Amino acid sequence: MKQVPALKIDGITIAQSLAIIEYLEETRPTPRLLPQDLKKRAQVRMISDVITSGIQPLQNLSVLKQVGQENQLTWAQKAIRSGFNALEQVLWSTAGKYCVGDEVSMADLCLVPQVANAERFKVDLTPYPTISRINKTLMALEAFQVSHPCRQPDTPPELRA
């Protein structure tokens, strides 16, 4: 599909964020990205899917090209706001320090880049206090600072930190 991310590891190439994260969880389980508790694990997967399947694809370059240059900002903002409205409600019941409880999980790995997209498309985050709080907490962690989308080698200059 000519999309990122893709990871070459252990002699294979894995595409798509959740497949990569789940492979890493299964082959390198420290730190744990899926909770031991099955209900929390389901919540982590649900939040991850809301972000990676319900919000993020609507801002892919291939989709934005289809809506036309003049409509891209409005389209992306509407998609993000709609997704964040639902996500904020879910997080009210699942969040602790992070998306699900007090341990970083796969859901948090999905949240940070989506908030970066929201900022890129100038979405007002004021209506999403839980999303904003969790993102701020995550961004205080070194792993999230160094892996932030604005710090990647292939990030366009205008989007770099």
**Element order, helices and strands?**
EEHHHHHHH
Helix content: 55-70%
Which overall shape is indicated by the principal axes computed on the Cα atoms? Answer: globular
- Average pLDDT taken over every residue: 90
CATH class of the largest domain: Mainly Alpha
From the coordinates shown, what is the CATH architecture of the largest domain?
Up-down Bundle
Spans where pLDDT lies below 50 across 5 or more residues? none
Number of strands: 2
Q: What class would the helix/strand composition place it in?
A: mainly alpha
Main beta sheet: 2 strands, antiparallel
Report the portion of residues in β strands.
Answer: under 5%
Instruction: Supply the number of structural domains.
Output: 2
Give Rg in angstroms: 16 Å
Enter the CATH topology name of the largest domain.
Glutathione S-transferase Yfyf (Class Pi), Chain A, domain 2
How many DSSP helices?
7
With strands numbered from the N-terminus, the spatial order across the biggest sheet is 1-2
- N/C terminus separation: 28 Å
GO molecular function: glutathione transferase activity; maleylacetoacetate isomerase activity
EC number: 5.2.1.2
InterPro entries: Glutathione-S-Trfase_C-like, Glutathione-S-Trfase_C_sf, Glutathione_S-Trfase, Glutathione_S-Trfase_N, GST_C, GST_Zeta, GST_Zeta_C, Thioredoxin-like_sf
Family: Belongs to the GST superfamily. Zeta family.
